[in-house]
């Protein structure tokens, strides 16, 4: 009985230590901006989810494509029906790793480089991008901006509207994480 109590106590301590390495965010703010000769297009969502393990430095993001909101409803319809084919490819996902050797258990602002695979429109593409990670107590905040070439994800822009949609779209990510408690 004494050994069983010791084993259970050791397991609880181990799982608690593991949980302190994992942070999650259920309201990732994502936006994209397309600057083209005839019009600028911007869309936003706060329905992305993400998790970061500061020990293994694994990063994960997932966002429902249909959650992006545009100024014009027609833009939103074209985005989902014609370009992203949201019914066929309902999510955009990123799986990657933080490349920096910093110990994120200490408060501070850390410039980070993340390498991983972004899946949009059913097409995987590898990215290496820079961002900022701010640690304060039991919270993490992440900010990053990077560019995505729409052709890299087989998103076809009809020649009729090629002056309305940019070939490269700027993506902005903002996320506030809290420690996962078990």
UniProtKB/TrEMBL annotation:
Keywords: Signal. It holds the Pfam family YceI. Residues 1-19 form the signal peptide. Residues 52-175 form the Lipid/polyisoprenoid-binding YceI-like domain. PANTHER family: PROTEIN YCEI. This is YceI family protein. The lineage of its organism: Bacteria, Pseudomonadati, Bacteroidota, Chitinophagia, Chitinophagales.
């Amino acid at each position: 009985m004494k050994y069983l109590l010791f084993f259970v106590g050791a397991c609880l301590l181990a799982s608690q230590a593991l949980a302190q390495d994992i942070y999650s965010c259920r309201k990732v703010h994502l936006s994209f901006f397309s600057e083209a000769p005839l019009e600028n297009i911007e869309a936003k969502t706060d329905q992305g989810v993400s998790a970061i393990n500061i020990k293994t430095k694994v990063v994960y993001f997932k966002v429902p494509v249909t959650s992006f909101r545009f100024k014009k409803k027609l833009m939103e319809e074209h985005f989902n029906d014609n370009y992203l084919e949201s019914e066929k490819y309902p999510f955009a996902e990123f799986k990657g790793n933080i490349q920096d050797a910093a110990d994120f258990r200490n408060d501070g602002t850390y410039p980070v480089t993340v390498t991983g695979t972004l899946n949009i429109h059913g097409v995987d593409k590898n990215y290496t991008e820079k961002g900022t990670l701010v640690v304060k107590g039991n919270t993490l905040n992440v900010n990053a901006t990077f560019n995505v070439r729409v052709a890299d994800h087989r998103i076809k822009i009809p020649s009729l509207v090629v002056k309305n949609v940019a070939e490269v779209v700027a993506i902005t990510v903002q996320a506030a994480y809290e420690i996962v408690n078990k």
